[in-house]
Design goal:
86 residues
Amino acid sequence: MCLHSTQNNKNLLFYRNEIKSQSGSGYKIEEMLKWHGNYTRLEKTMNYLQWLFPIQSTRGTNNHAQLLQREEAEVLKIKSRVFVVV
């Protein structure tokens, strides 16, 4: 897998706040983190979960979320600076 391709590393780009989620209206991670405490919104909108917590399994509930690629997981583990600090 090439991590320079946006086709394969959407989770990484999302965590770097470079792209919006690919479901619903699409939100960047900075926008989603502002929902903290807005429980009504969090309950009504569940398609954000697999963007904030990507998984490697196809058993997720959001078909628009990219599965977490092994190489992405390694980068996210090694380079914690890719996460947005709010």
